[in-house]
Write a structure and sequence with these properties.
Elements lengths: L1 E7 L20 H14 L8 E9 L7 H14 L1 E12 L6 H8 L5 E7 L3 H7 L5 H11 L6 E7 L6 H12 L5 E6 L7 H7 L8 H17 L3 E4 L2 E3 L6 H7 L3 E5 L4 E3 L3 E5 L3 H9 L5 E5 L2 H14 L4 E2 H8 L1 H16 L3 E4 L2 E4 L1 H4 L2 H8 L6
Parallel strand pairs: 1-2, 1-9, 2-3, 3-4, 4-5, 5-6
Antiparallel strand pairs: 6-8, 7-8, 10-11, 11-12, 13-15, 14-15
Helix pairs in contact: 1-2, 1-10, 6-8, 11-15, 12-13
Length: 377
């Protein structure tokens, strides 16, 4: 099984924390939709033996497209690829795009999963992040969407400056009140060259506190566990049978094709990425050229990726797979590197699977980097 990711590189406005590839100019939107469709067709030979089980519209802001644009692109995927009987088709959407009419339109299409960028239910947080929607739109879209979609995910951000534990808990409880089956939650991260980074340097906004973020994370874990959410990946929580098939396929190393500017692809042995420039992308596709770079992954690269993804998920790292796929040298190195983390109760081994403890989960990315192998010398 495999997936198709379609990157929509447009937004109404730039969120202060975002470093994804997008443009706030919609002048080339129609040309971009046609180019995306053409890339979908140009790359069908990559999946001639694959069955597609997920189609994911990410961005940017995919909900900025018309329903006709979305249906056209979905039809192009179905026309050119072997699609499973009931594929998961997700669209990322902003609350300000999800009017009642829009939700009804989407519900009548093949799209069966909404991923809504709520981020916070508080007006001051939304203004700090420069989100395009307001608190009322966040609440009203969820109230209406839950009548038309069973499979809904929302994004929430924690660790926002001046956000108290009480306020963060209110965010979680508000989300739970809408019976949403999937929540993705991330610590506010300061990326270089973003507006947020500039504001912090100028002292306009205070630097996010890692200790506060850690407290918020534990509150999130505890509260969602009370409501029977499964913490299946570091930043993702879902009720049973509501794991994101698209995201899970990334973490489990399945193949996927990324369509659109800046989109990434993976075929099990190589990674690829499209040019992160709308004009260059459009020009190349018009000339039937794929504006793409490939990187063949070394054995060490594949080992390190498995360590990173494995530690973040409930599936953990199979020590049997490490030995079988990479060899005893890799297994011995991993065993040596994990000793101190096991002693500190940050990692544990159960039935030959290495996983993070509750205490170690928030630190999993840092732990993983210490388990990486740089060379075999």
């Amino acid at each position: 099984m495999s997936g198709i990711y379609i990157h929509i590189p447009f937004c109404k406005q730039a969120c202060h924390y975002c470093d994804f590839h997008f443009s706030t100019s919609l002048k080339k939107k129609d040309a971009m939709v046609l180019a995306l469709a053409k890339e979908i067709e140009l790359r069908k030979s990559e999946f001639h033996e694959e069955r597609v089980e997920t189609i994911y519209f990410g961005g940017g802001t995919p909900s900025i497209l018309t329903i006709e644009d979305l249906l056209f692109l979905i039809d192009e995927v179905f026309k050119n690829y072997n699609i499973s009987e009931n594929p998961e088709i997700t669209i990322e959407a902003n609350p300000d795009d999800l009017s009642k009419d829009r939700i009804i339109e989407l519900s009548k299409s093949r799209i069966n999963r909404l991923s809504i960028g709520i981020q916070s239910f508080f007006e001051d947080d939304l203004k700090l992040m420069n989100r395009a929607h307001n608190s009322e739109e966040a609440r009203s879209c969820l109230e209406f969407a839950s009548n038309y979609f069973d499979n809904i995910s929302i994004d929430l951000i924690y660790g926002i400056p001046r956000m108290s534990n009480k306020k963060w808990l209110q965010n979680i409880e508000t989300a739970l009140s809408y019976n949403i089956p999937h929540i993705s939650s991330y610590a506010l991260t300061v990326e270089p060259k973003t507006a947020l980074h500039s504001f912090i340097q100028k002292g306009i906004i205070q630097q996010p506190d890692e200790d506060v973020a850690s407290e918020h994370f534990q509150i999130l874990v505890d509260k969602l566990a009370e409501h029977n959410f499964i913490h299946y990946e570091l930043s993702n929580f879902a009720k049973e049978n509501y794991f994101s098939k698209n995201n899970s396929s990334y973490w489990l190393g399945k193949k996927y094709i990324g369509i659109g500017p800046s989109a990434h692809s993976y075929d099990g042995e190589k990674r690829a990425w499209n040019v992160s420039n709308n004009a260059l992308y459009l020009r190349a596709i018009e000339e039937n050229i794929l504006p793409i770079e490939w990187e063949v992954l070394s054995k060490i690269d594949r080992y390190n990726e498995y360590i990173m993804t494995g530690l973040r998920t409930i599936w953990g790292i199979s020590l049997e797979r490490i030995e079988k796929e990479f060899g005893k040298t890799y297994l011995d190195y991993l065993s040596q590197q994990t000793e101190k983390y096991i002693e500190d109760h940050l990692l544990f081994v159960d039935e030959n699977i290495l996983r993070t403890t509750r205490k170690g989960k928030f630190l999993s990315d840092g732990i993983a980097s210490d388990l990486f192998l740089l060379n075999l010398e």
